[in-house]
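Weekend entry, working from home. Most of the wet-lab plans are on hold until the incubator is repaired, so I used the time to fold the two sequences that have been sitting in the queue since the last round of cloning. Logging both here for the record. First:
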Amino acid sequence: MITKSIYDRPATVKHLELPEGKRILVISDIHGNMEYFRGVLDRVHFSEDDILIINGDFCEKGPDSLGVLRYIMELSGRGNVHTICGNCDDWGTVFTASPEADGHILQYILHKKRGLLWDMLRECGIDPFAVETLAECKKQLFNGFLDEWRFLMRLPHAIETDRFIFAHAACDPSKPLNEQSVDDFVKYDYFLNSNRFFDKWVIVGHMPVVLYHKNIVCANPIVDKVKKIVSIDGGCVLKDDGQLNCLMIPHKDSQHFYWSSYDSFPEYTALDAQSEGERSYYVAWSDSRVQVLERGEEFSRCRHVTTGYELDILTKYLFSDEEITRCNDCTDYVIPIEKGDVVKVVETTSRGYFIKHKGVSGWYFGRLEKI
C-alpha cells in the first residue's frame, strides 16, 4: 500500500500513565472487520472501567474500514481508548504525499476493491472505477471526511508506559524510542524471530502468529518471556480460519497475560474422540508454491515445492489451473479431540471437517452435533 520511503521519517511516541486498578485490553489487526471487533469487545465485557489499546492495522483488507475507523473515534471520545497507527492506517501521510504517488494509490484501490479510500469514495457517491485521476476527487475526499483525516494524522506510532511498549510491528532496543523512525515501528516481519531483547514488555501485532508455526495452525497470542515480546495478531480477515484476539493485562503492574478471541464460525459438539495425527505440515502464504500431482474436483494431491512434502489440498484453495501454483494457507494436521469438545467448523467436506478448537485448526473425521 505504501512505499518504504514514506516510512522513513521520525515516529511519534505517546507516553501514557496507566491508572491504578484498570484492566488493559490490547487488540490489533482488526482490518476493517466490524463484526469481529464488536464481537471480541462483547466477549471480554469491555467497559469504561478498562483501558483499550488499538495496536494498529484497524483499516484495509476487510469490508468496513470506514465504519471501524468511526467506531474507534467514537470510543476514543470516552478517554480510555488509545489508538496506534499501523502500516495499513497511515493514509493521512499517503494521501498528502506527492502527486506522483496518486497513480499507485488509485491502482491499489481498484485492485483491492475495498479499504478506507474505497469506502470514502462510495460514501461520496463516486464510482471508484470511474475515477481517472485521484487529483480530481482529492478535495472532495478531504472536505467530506475532515474529522477522520484529523484523527488519522494525529495517531502515534507507539505508546510507552512504565512497564509496556505498544507498537504495531516492532521496535528497536538499540535506539531510544524518540529517535526511532516510523519504519522501526510499523514494518517488521517475524519480529519474534529477531535477536532483540527488552526490559519492558513489547506488545505487537502485524504478523499473524500462525506464521510462527510450521506443523500446526495456532492463532493464539505468543508470549516470549525471555525476549519480553507478546505477539497477538490472530489473522483476522487475512486467514480463512482467522480470529481477532484480545490480550488482557489485569493491571498496569502485572506481568501475567490472558486472552480471549472472537470468530464467526458455527459451533458443534464432537461426538467421537480423535487422536492426534503422526505427521503434518502447514503451507503458509509466505511459501505457498505447490506442484499439483493429481487434480481432483474437491481435493488435489500436491507437493510443496520447497520441502517436497506431499498433502491433499482443497482444490478451491489452489490459485490457478497450472501445475505449479500458489495456494491458500492449508494443513493436513489431524487435531486431537475428546468426545464432548466444542469445536468450530471452518470447512465441511466429503472426507471430514476442517475445524478450530481453542485457537488451533485441523482436520476432524468424527461425528458432529450442531449446538
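Second, folded right after the first finished:
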Amino acid sequence: MKKISTYLITILILFISCEEVIEVNLNTTEPKLVIDASINWYKGTAGNQQEINLSLTAPFFEENIPPATGASVQITSGNSIYIFTEDGTTGNYRNNNFVPILNETYQLTIQYNGETYTATETLKPVVAIDHVEQNNTGGFSGEDIELKAYYTDPGNEENYYFFEFLSTATLAPSLEVYNDEFTNGNQIFGYYSHENLTTNQQVTIRNYGVSEQFYNFMFILLQQNVQDGGPFETQPATVRGNCINQTNQENYPLGYFRLSEVDEIIYTTQ
C-alpha cells in the first residue's frame, strides 16, 4: 500500500510540474452604453421619484461594471421636461419631480460622450393582482412550492404583462412576460416556483403593464437566456432595445426605455 501511495504521489508531482497556464484571448470591442431606464409607478404612490442607470459594457471576465458618468439625461412629455441628475459618479441619474400619466407618451434623451441617444415609449396601466394561490406538491419532484398570482385581464383590448418574482430562494429574480391573445377578459396568473423555496419565506410579486414592443423585446431576451451552451457560445441574435443612437447608429446602445404602472404584493409562503 505504501509503494502504491508513493507511486501516485510521484505521478501527481510530474503532472503538476508539466501543467501550463493557458491564456484565453477574447476579442474586445469599444464599450457600448447600457441604458436601464425603467420608470415604474407603483399603485398607491405618487411616482415622482424615478431613477435611470447608465453603465458601459465590459470584458467577459471583468468583475466590475463601469458606470457611464457625466451624461445629460432628460425625459420630456408635451411641455414638461424632467431633468435627471447624477448621484456623484455612480451612473445613477435621479429625478424627484416626475409626473406619471397613464397612456401618456414620453421621450428619453441622453447625451453621452458626444453622442445623442433617444427612445420613445408609453406609460402602460396594469390591473391589480387579485390573489395568490400556493401549491406545495409542485415541480418534477412533487415537493416544490408553486405560486400563482391571479389577475383579471380587461376585455376588448390588447394587454401585455411583465411579471417579476423576488425571493431569498435565489439571488436572481424570476422574470416572465404574458399577453392576452388567448385569455382576453379572463382571470389568468403569473407563475413562480423554485426548488429552494420553503415555508415562511417572503416573495415579492410585481406585475408591470408594458407595451407590445417591450413584450417582444423581453420575450426574445428570455428565450436566449434559456439556450444551452457554455459561456462562450454565440448568442442566436443581437437583442436591441428601443434606444437609438441618433449621432452614430452603428454605435447602438443596449438596454431599454420602459414606463409601467406596477402592482406589488409581498406574499409569505405557508
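Plan for Monday: verify the second prediction. Residues 1-15, 227-234 have pLDDT under 50 and may be disordered.
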